[in-house]
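Explain the record.
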Amino acid sequence: MAFTLHCFADIPTSDWLVLLNHPDVTRHMPLADGKWTEASALDWAKGKDAQWQHNGYGPWSILIDGRFAGWGGFQKEADGADLALVLLPRFWGHGAELFHGFMTRRVDLGIGNVSILLPPSRSRVKGLARLGFIADGELDYQGQRFLKFRTTA
């Protein structure tokens, strides 16, 4: 697998709509409320790209073997950076490799602590320990409950 990272603006809005409206993806995205439109997807993508200017880092769109796979990367939080990864189902087996690629870039971006927030619907979390994360409680974010994990180093 060869993956490349890009600006959100590099991906056609139609590809974002496929990801953001995919039922197997949205069932794990409790903050996604309703059907995404071209306008809402475009605004959302602009907001993701703007994080780079505001924070010095942010998420990327991801191509795997030249095909749009989803998005992932770091988003600023009060106590460090949150690592997000959202992939189309046909790419779900590539999470660990993408994670390692992101964590390698973390040092160059000046990011210290990293957390992961998962909705309770994500019941398979044992693999996070192999990646260096420990459970760090729960939190309410925009009225939704999330499980929080953080790096141990």
Remarks:
- The chain is about 30% helix and 35% strand.
- The longest strand covers residues 67-77.
- The chain has a mean pLDDT of 90.
- The two ends are 28 Å apart (CA to CA).
